[in-house]
Each structure stands twice: as C-alpha cells, then as structure tokens.
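Structure first, sequence second, as always.
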C-alpha cells in the first residue's frame, strides 16, 4: 500500500533449547514493542521451542519495509489470565457482549455504533434463498424467512480465549440451523480495530440456504459506499440512471446485495463505520420481515444454489468455511475509512533472517514509492516490457482532479506517461521531491520511470 501504515503482524518463531524463555522485540531505532505469544511449545526445561509471535508494526513506510530485532530473554513472562466479563474496553471502544454478538461504543467519537434492537454486531443469521448459480437473470433473488435462525436466539457462552499486551480475543461456539457458528472477537489494544473471525462449521450442505453476518449501525440516514476495482461506488449516487434495459427492469440504484472488493462503509453527519471483508458480496438493507430502516452492513457468507442449467448440479459447499472481517469507526465519509478497509485485507508480510549484516547495502527502513495524496492508489509496480525501466500504475479514488507528486527510492533521471500496454511516452516533470503529474478525476495512469 502506498501509505505509511500501522498494522498487526503474526509469524512463527523457533528457538534452540534454553535460548529463550521469553522474547524482546525492538525496531531498528531500539524502541521496544509489546509482544504476545500464542500456540507456545516448550522444551522440558521450560524454554521456548516455537510460538506464534504477534505485535503491532508501527509506521511501516509506503510500499516499503522496516526492520525489527528479536532477542531471547532468560526470564519467562508471566502469562496473564482474564476471566470473561460482559463488558470490556480499551482507549478506543467499550464493548458489551450479549446473545449472538455485541454492542460497540466509540469513546473518541462518543457514539454508540450499534442499534441492537433486532440484531447485534457480529450476529450470524440464516434464511431461505432460492436461486440458480449464474441465473440471476433479471432481479437479484432475495431471501425469505422460511427456516430463519440466528445466533442471538440462544444463550451465548462467551469466553476469553487469548489475552495479552497486544490484543484480547473473545470466543463463542453455537449450533444454529444446519451449521455451527464459531466466532472470535479480537480487540486490538493500540489500534482502532476490531476483528470478527467468523467460522461456519459442519455446514450440512442443504439446498437454498443463505448465511449472513450482521453489523446493524446506529444510523438510518447513512450514505453507503463500497470499493470496486480502481474506484468507489456511493449507493444511490454513482449508478447509471434508471434500469439497465432489456430484461432488467429494476432501477440500478435499487439493486442489492452487490459485489464489493475490499470494504463497505456507511456514514451519516455524525460518524462513519468501515468494514473490510474476505467475501465478495455484501448488503446494507435488512432482508427480514418488518425490516428496520437502519443501515445493516451484511457480508454474505454462503448461499447454496442449483446450477442454472437444467441438467446441472447443486452447489452445496458442504463442510467448514472461514471468514474474517475488520471494522473501524471514524469521522463521516468513506474517505476516512478507505485505506483501513484495504490494508486490513492486504496484510503485512514478514521475512525472517537468522543474522544481521554490518555490510548490508540497504538501510533498515525504506519506502520504495509513495505519493503525497492519500487517496491516490498505486496498483502496480513492475518491470517495463521492453526495457529495464520501472512501470507504475496509479489511480484516483476520490473523483477529484489533483496535482500529484510521486516520490521514488532512487533519483529519477526521466519519467513519462504511457498507456496500459506501454505504448507512447509523454514526458513528465521531474522535481527534487520526485515526479509531478496532473491526475484527472477517476483517472488510471501508467508511468514509466528511468533511474
């Protein structure tokens, strides 16, 4: 991602016997980081054999890297235990747990984010959903209430699964119609982020069933927006006028659910909520009887279908399914959550080295490319087809004309605009800070750089 970011990191670390009883982690500037270990395996003497190391990597450079150093400690850390209580909080949120899910209060914005009258945050529900595989031939087929069930119909037995200096995880397991829901709520202590790890287990593969997760927002006047390839759609504003024509009679603005890329959000004049998603389809309208007017963000977990071919098979997807969603709340406007929605899915990658080298040719932290506009997205970095030049593709997500400065990790001798297949070359201005160009609203531009 072409922005400085702070995000969770998890990796497995291994040690020789008696090498480490706990871990100290510092960045290259010797700043200590909070760490949390999971899945610990120990040697007979109590030293660590292997564990999953979790920490929050702060201020990672845009399209770049940052170096951390790990040391074994001879004194074991006292692992903290935490009994489950119906309420918990950190400096960002106050959570209240109930049957099937939770409510969320934003302490910074002083806003209750969830309307819990019908659903609660994270609640999983199922409905009948009759449809064909590729056969939504006109209107999108909507679910109905036959066989409706939800996790909130049962007494939820929450427990604290993990607790430490980095995050706390709360978990429950509940049987509902035709499946078992196992959900983990992960509250990060030093980042404004809550994860919903939602597993649909032992799914029986019954035809025409659909499962959704609900995030019922405390707003009825929210502007829903979602990410699409190289852009953002605001519901009711960005669709083509009227119906699509031919067999499609419903106005385009009324179609739901819709395919999304990384995130969906809703904002009113008081606050906004953005949810990243590992599924491709989401809704925002309550599909049940006597629907509430609130915006209810709903990733669609699974829908069993029959092939649209009269001799085709059934798509039942029997078995276990795993999903992850991350949410944050922010000031009004999708612009304030768009980068979060993308980076929650594009997780940081780790490279492990046994030794450090005093003769290393590159610094301990570096950005390869960055822009001076947070909503200008670098989607591609590659070698040019016919030369050793570097090609970047950048996009405006905001829908505004702007002057953009693109900074590279090395001095640029020349840069030019080319087309998607790298034909043509229009020179760009190279200044001390980098490359400067005029980027039109919703534009996708390809830049060829010679170092």
């Amino acid at each position: 991602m072409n922005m400085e970011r702070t995000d969770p990191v998890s990796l497995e670390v291994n040690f020789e016997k008696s090498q480490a009883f706990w871990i100290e982690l510092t960045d290259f500037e010797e700043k200590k980081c909070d760490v949390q270990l999971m899945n610990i395996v120990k040697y007979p003497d109590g030293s660590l054999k292997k564990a999953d190391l979790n920490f929050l990597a702060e201020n990672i450079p845009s399209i770049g890297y940052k170096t951390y150093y790990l040391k074994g400690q001879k004194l074991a850390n006292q692992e903290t235990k935490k009994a489950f209580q119906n309420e918990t909080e950190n400096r960002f949120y106050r959570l209240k747990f109930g049957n099937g899910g939770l409510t969320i209060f934003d302490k910074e914005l002083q806003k209750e984010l969830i309307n819990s009258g019908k659903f609660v945050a994270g609640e999983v529900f199922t409905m009948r959903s009759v449809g064909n595989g590729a056969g939504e031939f006109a209107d999108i087929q909507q679910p109905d209430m036959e066989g409706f069930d939800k996790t909130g119909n049962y007494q939820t037995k929450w427990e604290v699964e993990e607790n430490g200096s980095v995050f706390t995880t709360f978990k429950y397991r509940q049987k509902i119609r035709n499946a078992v829901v196992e959900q983990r709520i992960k509250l990060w202590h030093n980042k404004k982020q809550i994860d919903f790890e939602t597993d649909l287990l032992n799914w029986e593969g019954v035809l025409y069933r659909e499962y959704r997760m609900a995030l019922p927002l405390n707003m009825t006047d929210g502007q829903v927006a979602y990410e699409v390839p190289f852009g953002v759609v605001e519901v009711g504003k960005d669709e083509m006028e009227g119906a699509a024509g031919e067999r499609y009679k419903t106005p385009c603005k009324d179609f739901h659910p819709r395919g999304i890329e990384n995130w969906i959000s809703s904002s009113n004049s008081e606050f906004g909520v953005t949810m990243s998603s590992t599924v491709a389809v989401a809704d925002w309208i309550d599909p049940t009887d006597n629907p509430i007017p609130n915006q209810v963000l709903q990733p669609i977990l699974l829908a069993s279908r029959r092939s649209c071919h009269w001799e085709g098979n059934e798509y039942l997807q029997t078995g276990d399914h795993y999903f992850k969603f991350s949410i944050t709340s922010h000031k009004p406007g999708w612009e304030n959550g768009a980068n979060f929605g993308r980076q929650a899915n594009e997780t940081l990658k780790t490279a492990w080295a046994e030794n450090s080298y005093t003769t290393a040719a590159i610094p301990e932290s570096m950005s390869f490319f960055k822009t001076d506009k947070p909503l200008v997205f670098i989607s591609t970095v590659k070698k040019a087809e016919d030369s050793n030049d570097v090609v970047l593709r950048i996009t405006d997500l905001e829908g505004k004309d702007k002057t953009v400065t693109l900074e590279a990790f090395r001095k640029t001798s020349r840069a030019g605009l080319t087309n998607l297949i790298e034909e043509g070359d229009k020179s760009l201005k190279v200044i001390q800070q980098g490359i400067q160009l005029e980027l039109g609203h919703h534009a996708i531009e390809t830049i060829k750089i010679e170092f």
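Margin note: The chain is about 0% helix and 50% strand.
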